[in-house]
Each structure stands twice: as structure tokens, then as C-alpha cells.
Amino acid sequence: MRARKIIIDTDPGQDDAVAILLALASAELDVLGITTVAGNVPLPLTSKNARVVCELAGREDVRVFAGCDRPMARKLVTAEYVHGKSGLDGIALPDPTMPLAEGHAVDFLIETLREEAPGTVTLCPIGPLTNVATAFLRAPDIVPRVAEIVLMGGAYFEVGNVTPAAEFNIYVDPEAADIVFKSGVPIVVMPLDVTHKALTTRARVEAFRALGTPVGHAVASWTDFFERFDMAKYGSEGAPLHDPCVIAYLLEPDLFTGRHVNVEIEVKGELTLGMTVADWWRVTGRPANAMFMGGIDAGGFYALLTERLARL
Predict the structure, then answer these.
(1) Helix, strand, or coil here: 157?
(2) pTM higher than the cut 0.90
(3) What is the CATH classification number for the domain harbouring 101?
């Protein structure tokens, strides 16, 4: 079977890094490129971190394109308080030797979607949606060429993790999210409702470490660092690995359950800016525009993750 062509749009972030590793470990996926955006940390660090992860995976052949360094209409909000100053705190890894690819991430998105056959490229945004929305605005002809967007962002029952109402990726650039959700492209959403059910446990982290590889040690170390914040915040026994859910869905969609509903992005609310208003109960009559996931087989998710990381 031909590998599914994807572009990962990302702001690494420990969980972004694990998502990238999962994709690079999976022969079913053809990673055409990685585009970086400002989010968890500023753009120079997200662009560096993406290359660190590619080199850790032994995949210096994957092109990494730097993208937008700020949201479309707002001041950048970052999350060093979660991810550390580097964005990849937890283990000391060498600086990357592979260069950034020439050109801007938005141009790469536009050129790739024009060059590849319509309906063959899936976009996998796991950070703020600035690059994708900017590409859609600049080149409307590419929008119907996108096969699907599978993204991590938003929340419904879990409400917000950066404000009482908003999840971080959507909150950082709600205008961009609004453009993407109104684009008409088929969308699958991995919200906090799913990712907060995909918690690490000591056994799951030690399974990464027990792989005995540089990748296994790095993922275990990142997870050790990353989970301290969520455990303190939520009183949980572990932390969610948000972004790998996107890649896991591409590999084993049956791990997830959800509803095809209408999702709108709040761009004006004083208290609700960045909220994903998911019509879970279908009360508005607005047409469905996204498959909004609500459940996950967490055991199956971690089994897949561990098995694939062992390949690197």
C-alpha cells in the first residue's frame, strides 16, 4: 500500500517531538516536510527543536521549513512554563547540524499542495494554525487540494488549559483557527477531551526507557520533565501526550471515537477568546465541519507508540 503523504506543522514541545518520532518510525506515512511555527517557544527554538528530533531519529533527509514567528493578529503567547526554556527540556541533546531548508514554511505548503495530486496530502498541525491559515489566505486554490487536516487543539468537556475556556494551540492564534475551521477541508480534531485520557504512567514511561535506545531514553526523559506540570496542575497520576494522538489516528483510527459536529472558534469573547465551541449535542443546526474526537483506547495508543519508537 502506498504511504500516506503528510506535512507536520509543529512548535516542538516534548509532545510534538514524540509525534514527529512516531511519524518518522512509521512506513505507512511519507513525511514530505516539517513546517515550524511559533507557539510553545519562539520560532528559532521550534525550528531548532524540529531538527534535533529529526537527527535523533536518524532522518536528516527530512526537510524542516521555518514559518510564521507570530500569530496573525495578536502578540505571541508561549509556554516555557510547561516545556522549559528550550522547549525540549529534560535531556541534553546536541545542537542540530542539518540546516533549515531554504524558503518559508508557508511557501512550502503552497508549492507542495500545488505539485502533489489533489486529495493526496494530509496536513497534521500540532501547534498554532498560523502557517496553515496564512497559506490558505495567500493561495485559496490549495484549499480544495488538501485531503484532510488532522490537528491537535481545542476542547469541549475539558474546557481550557491556558484560560478557563481555551486550549493553548487555538488560543495562541484564534484568527488562524477560525480560517482553518471555516475552510471546508475535512477536519479531524484531537482535543483535550481525548488527550487528557492518554495519560502517562510510570510503567508506560519506563517502557520507553527500557527500549534501551537513544530515542527511548530521550522520550522517557522528556516525559519525566513534561509530566511534572500536569500532575501538579490536575492532580493526575501522569501527563497527556497530546500531539502523538494526531499521528496515532493516521495509523490506527479505530483507537479513537468521536462525533462529526459543528465547531466554531471564538475570536471576540472577553472571557472566551480561543474557545472551540463544539456543538457536541447538535443543538445549533449549524452544519458539521469537523470530526471532534472524545474517546481513546489509551492502552492501545501507548502500545502503538512503544512498538513504533522501538523501530528507530
Answers:
(1) coil
(2) yes
(3) 3.90.245.10
- Residues with Cβ within 8 Å of 146's Cβ and at least 6 positions away in sequence, in order, are 113, 119, 121, 122, 123, 185
Say which of 196, 217, 242, 260 is annotated catalytic.
242
Closest CA to 189 of 300, 284, 264: 264
Environment class of residue 254 by beta-carbon count within 10 Å: exposed (0-12), middle (13-18) or buried (19+)? Answer: exposed
pLDDT digits (tens, 9 = 90+) for 233-253: 888 888 899 999 999 999 999
Cite the DSSP H helix spans in the chain.
14-24, 43-56, 80-83, 105-115, 130-138, 168-172, 174-181, 192-195, 202-209, 214-234, 244-251, 298-309
SS3 211: coil
3-state secondary structure of 47: helix
State how many domains the chain has: 1
- Give the tens place of pLDDT for each residue, 89-122: 999 999 999 999 999 999 999 999 999 999 999 9
The pLDDT, as a whole number, for residue 115 is 98
Residues spanned by the domain of 132: 4-309
* 242 belongs to the catalytic site: yes
β-pair partners for 263: 278
